[in-house]
Amino acid sequence: MNPLTVNTLVQQARQTALTIGNLADWLNHARQRSARLAIEADRLQLALQRCQHDAERLAQAASDVFSIGIYGRVQAENASLAVILGRQTMQVAQPTLTLRYRHSATIAAPRLTLLTEADLITLLFITAGAPPLDEQQLNQQLAALSQRRQTAAVAGMSSRCVASLRDALLRHRPQMPPANAFWMAASNLAPYLGIDHRAQLFSPLWNSQPQLTGLYRQLAHSLHGLGSRHIQLMKGELPYLDGIIDGSLATHLNSPLDSSVQIATLAGDEANRRAFSLAELALLSVELCLSQPVENDPFSEPVDILDIPAGVDGDTSTPIQRLMQAKRACQLAYCTDRRQPQLLLVGSTTTRHQDVAEVGKALTDWQQRQQAEQPPLCGDGKPDLMWVFSHHRASAGQKKLDDAVQRYVSASGAQWGSLLALDASDIRRMLAYLAAAAKATTQRQRIGGLLQALRREVRETLLGSWHQSAESQGRQRRQTAQHLLKALQARTGVHGELLERLLPERDRLRRLQRQTCSVGSSVDDPFSIGVELDLLTNASHSQNVTPDNHAFADALFADWIGHLRALPYHDAVRKLLAVDQTTLNLLVDELVNAAFRLELAAQLRHSLATAGSAADRQISQALSVLGDFVAWLGFQHLPASQRPASRIHHGQPIFVSVAQLDTARPARLTQLAATPVNGAAFYIYDWLVGLDALIEQNDGHDAASSLDNQLRARLTALSEALA
Fold it and tell me: Where are the domains of the chain?
């Protein structure tokens, strides 16, 4: 097998991005011809846009050199590790950006990489405390700004950037509702809005705080004026470098203390000189690249060393200071977005117990997105995430906190390793270990593996059920049932939690009703009798049923499908249920297939039409319909004689209690069984038997069956291009 080359990888990644774009075009066309696809189209479209953006990032990562990251909150520890790795470091107290030390033949001018507009929105969201998403306000902004759409796209924000922005916000606030409809509309509108109108569109993400909205406008306009995220400092401006690195110059924004600095924007091979605010440069800079010669380089191939700061406590009395603290805390996430570094060395990560989960989540996210399911780069099987034990970690309190972070990443320690750097022999062993792993060939293999995983996600996870033939799905159905039963019967102790997570929250339905239903005067008027009749005309009267029950039922059904589809991607849910993402995806697929097969949307319409117009009554009725489906899997509508046989209550069908059987032979006194009846066990195992039968009954009712032959053939051809 020929080794992968950089050009081959870049070409494959670009071709993957192009194919995913063609799939997005197919989806826009096909959603008009399939009612079922229309319900899930927004979610799929956003996922495809995010995958296309990931493919483009992989194309860029393929041409990057191998990188080793040093992640920690103690700058002296990070700098000492960088020196051990052969790099001459800068003496800075607390950097607010990533320092990239690059080996070059001569000293080159420092280069800065700036935030994108999507990065800036994420930072403002975190600065505001990651507030809950107010979909109603967001939709109002969409409606108000739809008339401001320009004919040509405005640079700085593409539809793919909006999809990736949504994923970034969900990572910071996993409990946030998916809001697929809003993000789909925003991905179509935001690229054609000017910066001021974009600020208005996204301002609800930071609670519309005027200071933060003003910051977005000012910094986004500055980015737009530069025309490039990559700039170079002129030689005479180097004394200002420390203030940019530690962010101290940011506090001078819009004050007489701020001054301008000469920079050169790098676009291709051209460099354009201009003046730029030092305060804005300190706010926007996310990485500083320092190129210099290296004596006695321990690596045989080019290797970049990344000094990545972890979040630290600091003054948060002003929005600028809160923004800088958020930027520092997000540095590892920015590197992860660019699929860097390939190996991560971890030092002291936190000083507070309340930060353990945040740091552990950042490290877990890096490992999952950078390594996925691939083997480690190192041949001895050690993970790519390594804790380094040096003299800076002598504190017992620090050790306890680091141990807590390690347990968050992996309780067993299988996902992380450790290296010693306490004496000269330890350092020699560490350098030999890292030098053996830092190879361009292994990096290309890793990028190639990530690209294959991305293709597989699109071809199988996102669109697999829409293009597979009936024969193919029939063969997989038995395997799916066996896999689900084996996984879920081992987790019967959390069956109640599983059923609870399958249902939407009441507050979520209440917000959805406010968005989709127009409450008429008959509901607002406490003296109304629910009927409006005009006695001055001959027109026949009709009951004023408000809110619009069908609109609410349809919106609720679509939202619930989105809720189910999002469950497999919630880390907290997977940890609670102790099931993997694949198992949850299979379960959700079958429940969605059954919901369409049993026409659950029609059941919701009928139920809400007879529930009256009171909001709480409508919501309770909707939860009752969904709850019955989740609890009984549709078998409550079948007579007992047509239900599958119970495997725990021998001789009886599923979901028939002992009390129901006793009514057939009434007696004066209730006869108690010799042993207590474990009703919970009866129900749980009957539910699993019902799930097995439900999967079998779903045969012929898969997503692919809702598409005509022409659409399915086109989708199959596009999917095969990703094989």
Answer: 6-56+446-465, 66-105+293-435, 120-213, 469-524+545-654+694-701
